[in-house]
Amino acid sequence: MKIKLILIFTFIASVGMAQNIDSTQIGKKYPYLFPLLGKKAYAKGYELQLPHGLMVNTLFNRQDIVLENMSLAFTQPGEDPDFDKLQGVSDQIEFGPSSGRINTLCFRADTWVFPFLAVSGYYGKIWGEQVVSLTAPIEIESVTELRGQYYGFNLIAMVPLGPVVLAADYSWSWTTNERLDKPVLVEVSGMRLIKRVPTKTPGRFWAFYGGAQFQKLESQTSGKISLEEALSLDGAALDALDQRIDEANSTIADLENEWVDYTSSSEWNDLSRIEQAKQEATYNTVHGVATAIVGAGESASELLSGIGTSTVHYKFDKRLLYEWNMLLGANFQLNPIWQFRAEYGFLKSKQQLMLSANYRFGL
Q1: DSSP for residue 12
Q2: CB-based contacts of 278, cutoff 8 Å, min separation 6
Q3: Is the bond into 163 cis (omega within 30 degrees of 0)?
């Protein structure tokens, strides 16, 4: 089975905010409306970066995902799924390793509301692929193309701590695409310790930092996908699937024979009607899902033509295998207007690389 997941990652505002003292500006008037209290800070000699920014970010990400508590419903054209009666199949469907490889392009605007607090909003596009493996009732590995968009907002606070600056941020993002019933909420928080390294050129410096980031996904996702696309039955995959279908059909036949024998046994007769009904419901779910997936008695080509109009409606819980990761990064301020940044996040199989350019201005 193939399931589309959208994961997005947001970025804090520029880490180039200066906390140095410039004695030449002491007593002078601050020329901009924001940040609030900026006039007092500026008059005391604190350097403030230009209050508004426009940023473009791109991110390359790979991380593992855990899928749990799956429910399914199958429909034909014109049919509506009854989501109150989705078949719970978490005990029958077993997922193997699942991972996402995602690229994003994001545009954002930020404003320093106070000298220590910035607010930003952003919108971006996402593309990549999701790999989902199913280990039971049959073995299938699915690779799904990801396409979507996301939007959200971010808060960042900065506090000077002697020779370094502590930055903390929190983001709320919503990701959507045509297969999701509703946008998926992702919350991202992080902390960084930033060390500024000046150069001989006024207004030009480096800022190096390290820290940690936590990402939390909204637990439940629901949506739909055609059964044909979910199984990736095209080209060479059809030839490779023929043998698996024969094996799976043999397994289904064995399951049916075992069920007939079991319902004719004394053990079955000793069960109460409620217990019999529960076991029959479980059997029908397993048999229905396996048959819908492989198409009993058919070849791969016949299967593709037979299920082309079927749609799978799904609900499941998801979580990141690793919600935390470490961060290392650098920010380069060419001048008060232009800043550039690179950041690498990592933890075991979780990896991400972010690049950004930031244009700043005052009003």
Answers
A1: P
A2: none
A3: no
Q: Per-residue pLDDT averaged across 221-230, rounded?
A: 62
Give the rounded percent of residues in the chain with a pLDDT score beyond 70. 63
pLDDT tens digit string along 58-103? 999 888 887 777 776 666 666 666 656 555 555 666 676 677 888 9
Tokens of 295: 């198409």
C-alpha distance from residue 359 to each of 51, 53, 142, 188, 339 (Å): 11, 5, 41, 24, 7
Using pLDDT thresholds of 50, 70 and 90, give the confidence band for residue 322: confident
As a whole number of angstroms, the distance between CA 24 and CA 39 comes to 15
Strand partners, 226: 311
Question: Three-class SS of residue 280?
Answer: helix
The two three-digit tokens of residue 296, written as one number: 């009993």
- Return the top range by mean pLDDT from 25-29, 218-222, 318-322: 318-322
Phi, psi of 130 (to 5 degrees): -120, 125
Helix (H) or strand (E) holding 347: strand 338-347
Contact at 8 Å (CB) between 126 and 183? Answer: no
Secondary structure of 238-279 in HEC code, one letter for each residue = HHHHHHHHHHHHHHHHHHHHHHHHHHCCHHHHCCCHHHHHHH
Q: Which of 167, 33, 31, 21 is CA-nearest to residue 113?
A: 33
Both tokens of 340, joined, read 């550039």
Which tops the pLDDT comparison, 70 or 171? Answer: 171
Report the candidate in 338, 251, 248 with the shortest Cα–Cα distance to residue 294.
248
- Spatial distance between the Cα atoms of 16 and 212, rounded to a whole number of angstroms: 18
Question: Which strand (E) or helix (H) includes residue 170?
Answer: strand 164-176
